[in-house]
């Protein structure tokens, strides 16, 4: 675990590789329970079988807004237990976002005590008074904890920080060392780098990596939170091989590999089911049911309640068909 004082040097030397954002497998009536065996299997699969070096726990794909505080704590504890048994050096990242600052403090203190390496706080989803309000939220948490902090700037919050607002948070709170820029606005990430050059940035618009932004030091060598386990298998480590080329500055080879392996086409074929609900097409979401359906196609356990908890909807047959076809064309499952 990195303390607040150590956070920035630690982030620059340690945050690298694929970081898997874990889904929550539900079971029981209306998904009111969690299938802990399925969750343990998922953690072991990511760390031991795929050999990915980082985990991203209790965040958007995990549907944190539908989990109780106790469920979120236990999910993190189980992830740490299973992951460190498989790889003692795995980096465990925890999302401790909550609508109440006191709840976020409670989760952050728990993550610190449980052995997480860093926590990320998504821009508050309710009543955020701009960058000033987000800064006060972060400061409240930083004053009560001693662990590395990261920003998670996602449009699913309903408010996206400007580069100047993020840079101010970084400037005023020494524990803040990294950010997941999830708004798909590369120009803003570049501006943020200019304002805070030592901040470790993960830009979710991954085309910037092909443009040499890693070489230029604008972004870091890590996928801070993604569903990498849905893009490869131990027998076909397509995503890992692609990112190894990127991280070794073999950009032309990486682009050729992405085309020939079908990785680029897979992104097209998947459509937007992971991040867009058709009934609210202007809103960015983390559709838990879509992620879990994709996982089930690869043989990963998702619990006997395959849907998301409210307020998310069930994945329609159209989405399931398109996702299945994408995986068949990609060659990760049989026709």
Automatic annotation (TrEMBL):
SUPFAM superfamilies: Aldolase (SSF51569). Keywords: Lyase. InterPro entries: Aldolase_TIM (IPR013785), DapA-like (IPR002220). It comes from Mycolicibacterium moriokaense. Belongs to the DapA family. CDD domains: DHDPS-like (cd00408). It comes from the Bacteria. SMART domains: DHDPS. One of its GO terms (molecular function) is 4-hydroxy-tetrahydrodipicolinate synthase activity. This is 4-hydroxy-tetrahydrodipicolinate synthase.
